[in-house]
Amino acid sequence: MLQTFRDAWKVPEIRKKLLFTLAMIVIFRLGSQIPVPYMKTKELIEFFRSQQGGLLQFLDIMAGGNLGQFTIFALSIYPYITASIIIQLLTVAIPSLEALSKEGEAGRKKISKYTRYLAVVLAAIQATGSTFGFFKGFVAASNMFENIVIILSITAGTMFLVWLGELITEKGVGNGISLLIFAGIVARFPQDIYLSIRQASAGMVSWVWVIIFFILFVLIVVFVVLFNEGERRIHVQYAKRVVGRKMYGGQSTHIPIKVLMSGVMPIIFAQTVTSIPSMLVMFNPNSRMADFIVTWLTPRGGPGLIINSIVLLILIVFFAFFYTTIQFNPVEYSKQLQQNGGFIPGIRPGRPTSDYLAKTVNHLVLPGALALAILAIAPNFLSKAAGMSFNFGGTSIIIVVGVVLETSRQLEQLLLMRHYKGFLK
Fold it and tell me: Residues near 88 by Cβ (< 8 Å), separated by ≥ 6?
């Protein structure tokens, strides 16, 4: 992987893409230091420091530390991700949206526009709930105009991140949305590691638990790399055919089917959905309903840890299958093979081939998704058992490792494309 980055850096056009991506991430981190106006920022920061291991700490981790400082990126990119989930599910349910998704680039642009509109609405709702619900005691606004400025600042910050992510995807390297989440998580790692060491040094937790968490960290990294790189190769043979005086075909190749074809998106989507109850608490934090949600539906409650983990597992498996279905269509793949004279040895062309491909993909996706879910959930139970605020949990580590691997893979593809262009010239 390091060799790939070194090779990519030597190529001028790829180096420009890398520098552009780094510049966008720097802008994101600079924006993370801009506080929302008309808020008692210092008092809010002190309040968050006293909430170690609580619900707010969990939400702050998801926002990359922006919620704790209540910056313009307090909601991070999650309203857009939620909007994207809703639109994609509606695309399957509503025929007009499904037809639009099949219209090529023009249809995708329209769906993307609808997603942005919905993201603006969700961001405004979440900004209103968090500002005048959970944090109303820290609002220094004295009139309606100042209140509107607070909401607009947070909403604009979220949409600026959406624009920044799309710029990275278009002109940089990697998936922009994933990279912004990655940057937010990584920015918190030093602080979280220091906090864990300080807790162990003060005798608040045992050094044995710190070592166990470190070993678990390494194991998660190893397994995520194995799952991301693991693939099954289905042998494909092309029949010989004569065109004029030339003979074509006859060669053999393979279809690479990855264990985790969907990458880290199932984790990101599942985490976003399971955080919705925590967001609802912000609208009325002192109500009985809020107490019920914290206890039963969030990882910070006793029963909530189990319920949240089960829901997270189900959602990760669901989104893994959902994304794989979008990316890999066995019927279309079977048709393309048949049209090009290709076949899988021992499998008849047409319907039997598509059924075989679908069965193979499902056999790979299910164990991969289950393993991913277990890796994401396990640190939460260990953290509860140790009584330790292990903020850089399984989900964060999986996202970080997955994004690095995906970016490295895209760099390899850019290098390969450049070699082909050089060969053709």
Answer: 322, 326
